[in-house]
Amino acid sequence: MSLFGRSLFSTELLSNEDLEFLFSTTRLFKSEFEKRKRIDHLVEGPDLHQKCVSLAFFEPSTRTRLSFQMAALRLGMKTTSLDNVAVSSISKGETLSDTVRNLAAMKPDILAVRSGENSDLEETLLDLSIPVINAGSGTSEHPTQALLDAFTIQEFRGKVQGERILIIGDVLHSRVANSNLILLSKLGAEVAYCAPEEFNPHRENWKATKKFSDIKDAMKWATVCICLRIQKERHQLHHSIGLSMAEYRERFRIGTAQLKDFAADGILLHPGPVIRGIEISSAALQDSRCKVLDQVTNGVFMRASLLSGILGLEVKKQ
Ligand code: CP
User: Which ligand 1 atom is nearest residue 135's CA?
Assistant: First the structure.
């Protein structure tokens, strides 16, 4: 089954065929954009210029929201965006579920939604009659981030299969880590994590995952290192962090000393936003192995591929 007309809630739901389409189309869009600064000539579909993606962001975002917008614009489509809850009717008491029902009633072609933990909203999204993309949901999943991470790994390491991928930091609260574990394992990578006890993941699928207590051993093992943001905004929902920022930095921050233990051809990733000096030092962000901004570039083309697939656009492979 192709991506046409489908929603994307989890990386679990992506087939090999979907992944082949998304990776090859992303590669094509990126290389064509580098040559001609446009990709719209590569896609065709009925009334493409009338297609509209509705963005509903109930949590803050820079990369995901703007790269969905950029992707749609590059394809020749339009977007609408609800990104400031304070000036929406949520501030007058409307629920998030009713808000997305109303956005869907405006008949966009695709709805992309970012939200915190909200089971009513999740049920409502499953019931909508238009395709929905999960643009980050609570501590659950962030499938488009995992897709662009996997693409970036393939781009710089040449493959995902057999890569040793280390996820560092607040794994417990990270939707990115959850989507990455599913997707990168499916693609044949070995995933491990290194986290303070307080941030050990609880989900069943993490139980068999390799864990490092010491960052030095972990860095020596890895070919790809993904640092995570400490998700302070979620800590009071569950429990507070049991160690100080200074302790965290001492034990888990990636700086030049930690990069000395890392493969010379390894790559360092972070989904963003990076809290400089806490998760990665400013010096490490300048290291040639750091591909954080390449992830952001790839995010536009991966999201353009996903929109193309869901809308059933014809992609001219040239
Ligand atoms: N990676 C990511 O989701 O970043 P934003 O929160 O800025 O969208």
Answer: 3
